[in-house]
Structure formats: C-alpha cells, structure tokens
Design brief:
The protein has about 240 residues and is α/β, with parallel strands linked by helices. Helix content is about 35%, strand content about 15%. Strands 2-1-3-6-4-5 form a six-stranded mixed beta sheet. Strand 1, helix 2 and strand 2 form a beta-alpha-beta unit. The longest helix has 21 residues. It is globular. The N and C termini lie far apart (about 55 Å). The structure holds zinc ion (ZN). The site of zinc ion (ZN) has 5 residues, from loops.
C-alpha cells in the first residue's frame, strides 16, 4: 500500500474518533481548553480577582451597610500580603474600578503557570450562611476542595459549610488557567455579615485562603479526593445565568 494512502487509512478513524470524543482540546496558546487534567502544582503566579467594583457594588448588607465590592478588594489585598513573597501575585483590580467579566478572563490569560482566585461575598435568604466555593474545570477541583475546607475551618462553628458548587461561570469555565470563585460568606445573614465586617475575621479568612493556595502549590491534588468527570460545555456567555 502506498505510504500516503496507508497513513490516511490509519489516521482517519483516529481523527473521527478524536473529533467525536474531545471537541477541540487545545486553545490557541496550546493549553488545555477544557481544563481536563489534574490540578496545578508548583505554580508561581496567583491572580487574585476582587469581584465587582466601580459602578457594580455587588451585594450590599442591610445589616452593616457594607458593599461587596469594598470587601472583595480588602480581601484581595489581605490574601496578597498573607501569601508573602512566595508567589508572584497579581491583583485583577487594585482600586474601585469596574472591569467586565470577559475582560477579567482576557487579562488572566496573559499569565502562564498561574491560578486564578475570584473573591466574592454572597447574598440570599436571611437564614442562609457559610462559605461556598464554585468551580467547573477538572483542574480546579483540588484547589476548590482545599479553599472550601480552609474557609469552612476559619468561619464560626455555627456557620454551615455550604461546600463546593460545580457551576459554569465566566470565571470558572473560561480562563485558560485553573480558576475558582470563592463566596466568603453571606452579607444577607445578620450574624455572618457582622462577622465579615470585622477586619480581624477577614484577616483570619485571608490567612486560611493563602494557606490553601500554598498547600495546593506544594501538594497538587494529593488528598483532595477523586477528580470529577470531564464536562464538555461551551464557554460561559453574558447571556447565561447571573454570576
Ligand atoms: Zn459577587
């Protein structure tokens, strides 16, 4: 059989199989487009995204008057200082400015060998409280487990551990780097919002988050349980559910 024909015959089934099983696994940068791989280890850069900002205040606590956008920026700064010199840290925003979510993804993609942590505080029914961690990608699961464990341990005993939520958001699906979105507590809960208003508590939470990041850098996914199944969904769009 002529070599060319042989190559085509051999390669064709593999190509067809590949196109059915894994639609586009590589982005233009060569990194795994879907994040279907084990979590990061030994990374050097931590991108800290303070949620909301500028014209977008996020949630506002009716108990303390505090705005989510101010608390997330405060937390981002505290996490950076808790991480110390062990990492190159990048703040997505360092003042009270609005940055579109797609622009945040675009900026995060400039950095290789990085993880992205997006900081938020929650709002919901008055009785609901406790930290929560959102992730989507397989390579972000171990990091999400570590961060949720750490926040839960740092929060008051009466707070519920709301656990991990696998949700396709622009900051959990779209970046080319492992990424998680943290909800540090409910501003709508009277006691939890007063807790979050206390700078000593925020420092404790920031130290816990920094510790989880360090653990992930040293140990990778070890001890964080089995990886979740891959999910093939398109990037999140502004028209998807609210973030
Ligand atoms: Zn938010």
């Amino acid at each position: 059989m002529p070599l060319l024909r042989k190559l085509i015959l051999c390669a064709l089934p593999a190509l067809l199989l590949a196109s059915c099983a894994t639609p586009a696994t590589r982005s233009s940068s060569g990194r795994d487009y879907w994040g279907h791989r084990p979590g990061p280890k030994g990374f050097k850069t931590v991108i800290i995204d303070a949620g909301h900002g500028g014209t977008d205040p996020g949630a506002i606590s009716r108990h303390t008057g505090q705005r989510e956008k101010d608390l997330t920026l405060d937390m981002a700064r505290r996490i950076r200082s808790e991480l110390g010199g062990g990492f190159r840290t990048i703040l997505m925003r360092s003042d009270d400015t609005f940055i579109d979510l797609d622009e945040r993804v675009h900026r995060a993609n400039r950095h290789g060998d990085a993880i992205l942590i997006s900081i938020h505080f929650n709002s919901g029914p008055a009785h609901v409280r406790g930290p929560e961690t959102y992730y989507w990608r397989v390579d972000s699961h171990g990091l999400a487990v570590r961060l949720q464990r750490a926040m839960s341990a740092a929060s008051p005993a009466e707070s519920s551990n709301r656990g991990l939520v696998r949700r396709r958001l622009r900051l959990t699906r779209n970046p080319e780097t492992p990424c998680v979105l943290l909800e540090g507590g409910y501003l709508s809960h009277p006691a939890e919002s007063r807790c979050v208003a206390d700078s000593q508590y925020r420092q404790k939470l920031a130290a816990a988050i920094a510790g989880a990041i360090r653990d992930q850098a040293v140990h990778g996914d070890a001890g964080t349980g089995p990886l979740p199944r891959p999910l093939y969904e398109p990037p999140s769009r502004p028209t998807d559910a609210p973030e």
